[in-house]
Automatic annotation (TrEMBL):
Lineage top rank: taxon: Eukaryota
Residue span(s) of domain Methyltransferase: 16-95
CDD domains (alphabetical): AdoMet_MTases (cd02440)
InterPro entries referenced in this protein's UniProt entry, alphabetically: Methyltransf_25, SAM-dependent_MTases_sf
Lineage: Eukaryota, Metazoa, Chordata, Craniata, Vertebrata
Pfam families attached to this UniProt entry: Methyltransf_25
Protein name: Methyltransferase domain-containing protein
Amino acid sequence: MPLLQTKPHPDGLLQVLDMGCGTSALGPCIYRHSPLPVRVTCADISPIAVRIMQEHVQTKAIQPHNLSSWLEFVELDCTQLHKHYGCSSVDLIVVTPRSIV
Ligand SMILES: C[S@@+](CC[C@H](N)C(=O)[O-])C[C@H]1O[C@@H](n2cnc3c(N)ncnc32)[C@H](O)[C@@H]1O
């Protein structure tokens, strides 16, 4: 992804949102492989999906390519993004309709 090779956000982290992440590996893959520091937020309205992903990542102990990167899973209705982000913006929103983990 070309954006992930560009200059980071002023706070030093590229803000990435995986919207409706379900149990997709996309967000964790970006976190794991991005050479630049990223804050990857995997958001889903389903508390079950969020819990499964939190447990999965803890079990796998995924390490980021860049040690400054962050990965988080949040229960969030993506029509209500302001509740999580307030006035701040994101650099990249990814959405996959369905993927295979
Ligand atoms: C077809 S699944 C795709 C999941 C994942 N992106 C993938 O590629 O496997 C759609 C996901 O969107 C979530 N979703 C539906 N409406 C949502 C909303 N308003 N806010 C956040 N997530 C939502 C569902 O809970 C579900 O996990």
